[in-house]
Amino acid sequence: MSAPTAQIFVSYAHADNQLFDAGTKGWITEFVDKLEKAIGMKPGGNNAKCWIDYRLEPQRKVDEALLGHIRESRFILAFMSPRYLESEWCAKEMHAFVELAGGHADDRVFLVELLPTKRECWHPGVQAIAELKFWTSSLDQPDPMILGWPVPDPKGDRPYWNELNRLATIIARQIQDLPPIPPDPPPPPDCPEPPTPPSGPLRVVINADQTDHQLGKAAQKLLDDLEVDSAIAPEPISTQIPEDYNRHLREQLEASHGVLIVYGLAPPSWVQSQHAMARKLLATQRKGIWSGLLDGPPQEKPDHGLSSRSLMVLDCRQGLSVEPLKNFVDALREHHV
């Protein structure tokens, strides 16, 4: 088992990294350089490496190359600001990281707030995460100003250096908690056999986000009453490698006749990503209806945005009941048992 590497993906708005004058670096470039060195001085931080895309906004895009860097990163460091929230690319970077983390990124996202922002405008997957405030204002200086702007002074800007040191300590501790990276698995055979539909009793995977876990458990009890072998997909662990979690979920899906995705308090983006993963695995192996969307309480929430001939939407916004689940089970049995 090799020591864990800790690539940190840096997500920022180019407008926040402008050069103040010749011979200086942008504020974010300077910050990331100092942060990486500070992390390296902490116990467990010697394997930290920051990755930052210096392309200008018009040239940036969330392509396969960038997704590769996001997949390789154990953490993301986002510089929150009004310009960050305006950036389409920054939003896509954060969305991609949160989705790859399985929707649970509490211990893997670090937020540096450069200027005041509205938390409700952040990605739903990071709204509960505490930010480190790198701006200040006062009665004498009511307009917010970034700490250490435009160029941090090693002697005079103590709040800047104190907060940078605090962030380095937090990241180093998280690196120490990372699990070891297992050795590479053996290469697959040249012509692997595609997964075949399972035989035996009807089996359903219930996929519920952490916020909808209780609703998923209630649905499992009703499925048990309908004599369906059901299992709730495991929740990802904050220190778990995303690839390991996704592989485990894929194995569960391939061994099932269908999947029931729970949509209560989870963000629509999470619901859509889970359905996309299930569709990629099951669409060519299953016929007719193989996926269900348990559209539960609350009544007022965004549309889930899903539409597919293989998907049955179970309207349970008024409350969970057995009848919609029975209709879903009957549709599964018609094609798969």
UniProtKB/TrEMBL annotation:
Family annotation (SMART domains): TIR
Domain called TIR: residue spans: 4-142
Any single GO BP term: signal transduction
Bias type Pro residues, positions: 179-200
Family annotation (InterPro entries): TIR_dom (IPR000157), Toll_tir_struct_dom_sf (IPR035897)
Superkingdom of the source species: Bacteria
Region (Disordered): 177-200
Protein name: TIR domain-containing protein
Organism per entry: Methylomagnum ishizawai
